[in-house]
């Protein structure tokens, strides 16, 4: 059974005003004093963000328990510093982000300027047996990544305004020079050559700054999916992780069977990514097989059909179907946020409710 780990970036906010607070260093200092939180929390680029990483898990029930535990620990340590955590991919209220200390972060802030805006994502690591298998997976999962973006979309507001996007984080993140979809690599050698060429341009510092939508991890024997917004509730995060593992296993089987990747161009994949960010689950998406518009429910169903045999073998198919049906019925995080704003007329109340849901 392939193991799965999740990294979530949580927004630190004032519990009264809902505005982001630059207290990451203080929250991390609290966590470092707690023996149960060793190697769980990590420093990120922004002072208004607290990131955690779960331990790798084989079972999705155990992964969910890990995510819930880490969110609760994050809330506790943030509370000790006078703030709260919210699983929001962008701040609904205006924010002027500040950056952590250190030469690396300062270089990024100076080099990329306004592109370094505060956004929070969910990264999923799925184990692979080798770099060869990993690159084969990277090549074959490409068309399906926008569906994960649509399911996880949780960033409709930006600087106090409705963006008309379901995942505005997706659009902000796409401004980074190394982010986005990739062409088919075909081999580990081609993948490594491309990474080396990118580093050699001087536009990025090292391999860790290669922000492909899905990439070989520089630290772990995994492929890392980087397309999802941080999800408002833990169940949606688990659904995304489940689908990621299903995609990896399905792609690995296709590779072993000698089936070639779908040769969609990067141009079409970028359009599919934009479409998912714009409409989420509210309208049409581009079907991963045809790159033509289709209802979101149909496209989600196609993803479930694609990974169905792998999920059946892991025992996750029934739960994944039920979770997809729930998100399609109740809406993703973007839909929840907009409904909250429609009812309350207050972005502060939106943040307060999202804090409550994050810490449940």
Question: Which features would summarize this protein structure in a list?
Answer:
ATP-binding, Creatine Kinase, Chain A, domain 2, 360 residues, Putative glutamate--cysteine ligase 2, alpha+beta, seven-stranded antiparallel β-sheet, GCL_type2/YbdK_subfam, single chain
Order of helices and strands: EHEEHEHEHHEEHHEEHHEEHHHH
Q: Assign the CATH class.
A: Alpha Beta
Q: What's the assembly state of these chains?
A: single chain
What is the overall silhouette?
globular
For the record, the CATH architecture stands as 2-Layer Sandwich
Could you give the distance between the termini? 29 Å
- Tally of individual domains: 1
Q: Report the uncertain regions.
A: none
Kindly identify the CATH topology: Creatine Kinase, Chain A, domain 2
Count, helices: 13
Fold and architecture overview:
- The protein has 360 residues and is α+β, with helices and mostly antiparallel strands.
- It has a single domain, classed as Creatine Kinase, Chain A, domain 2, CATH 3.30.590.20.
- It is 48% helix and 13% strand.
- It contains 13 helices and eleven strands.
- The protein has helices at 24-32, 60-80, 103-112, 131-141, 145-152, 168-173, 188-200, 234-256, 266-279, 296-314, 317-330, 333-344, 347-359, and strands at 4-13, 41-42, 49-53, 84-86, 121-127, 157-158, 161-162, 214-216, 222-229, 284-286, 293-295.
- The strands form three sheets. Strands 1, 2, 3, 4, 5, 8 and 9 form a seven-stranded antiparallel β-sheet that branches.
- Helix 8 packs across helix 11 (317-330).
- The protein starts with a strand and ends with a helix.
- The model has no long low-confidence stretch (mean pLDDT 95).
């Amino acid at each position: 059974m392939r193991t799965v780990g999740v990294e979530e970036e949580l927004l630190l906010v004032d519990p009264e005003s809902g505005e982001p607070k630059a207290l990451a260093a203080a929250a991390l200092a609290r966590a470092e004093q707690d023996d149960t939180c060793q190697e769980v929390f990590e420093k990120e680029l922004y002072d208004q963000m607290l990131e955690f990483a779960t331990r790798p898990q084989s079972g999705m029930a155990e992964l969910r328990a890990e995510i819930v535990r880490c969110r609760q620990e994050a809330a506790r340590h943030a509370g000790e510093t006078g703030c709260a955590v919210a699983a929001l991919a962008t701040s609904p209220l205006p924010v002027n982000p500040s950056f952590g200390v250190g030469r690396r972060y300062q270089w990024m802030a100076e080099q990329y300027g306004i592109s370094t805006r505060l956004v929070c994502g969910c990264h999923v690591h799925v184990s692979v047996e080798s770099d060869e298998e990993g690159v084969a997976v990277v090549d074959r999962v490409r068309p399906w990544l926008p569906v994960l973006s649509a399911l996880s979309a949780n960033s409709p507001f930006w600087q106090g305004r409705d963006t008309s996007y379901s995942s505005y984080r997706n659009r902000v993140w796409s401004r980074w020079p190394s982010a986005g979809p990739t062409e088919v690599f075909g081999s580990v050698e081609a993948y490594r050559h491309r990474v080396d060429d990118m580093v050699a341009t001087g536009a990025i510092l090292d391999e860790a700054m290669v922000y492909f939508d899905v990439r070989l991890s520089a630290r772990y024997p995994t492929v890392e999916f980087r397309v999802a917004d941080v999800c408002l509730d833990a169940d949606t995060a688990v659904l995304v992780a489940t689908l990621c593992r299903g995609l990896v296993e399905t792609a690995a089987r296709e590779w072993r069977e000698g089936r070639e990747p779908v040769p969609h161009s990067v141009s079409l994949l970028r359009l599919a990514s934009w479409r998912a960010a714009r409409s989420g689950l509210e309208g049409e998406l581009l079907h991963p097989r045809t790159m033509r518009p289709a209802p979101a429910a149909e496209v989600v169903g196609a993803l479930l059909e694609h990974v169905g045999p792998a999920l059946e073998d892991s025992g996750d198919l029934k739960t994944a179907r039920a979770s997809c049906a729930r998100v399609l019925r109740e809406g993703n995080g973007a839909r929840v946020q907009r409904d909250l704003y429609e009812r309350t007329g207050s972005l502060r109340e939106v943040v307060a409710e999202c804090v409550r849901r994050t810490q449940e």
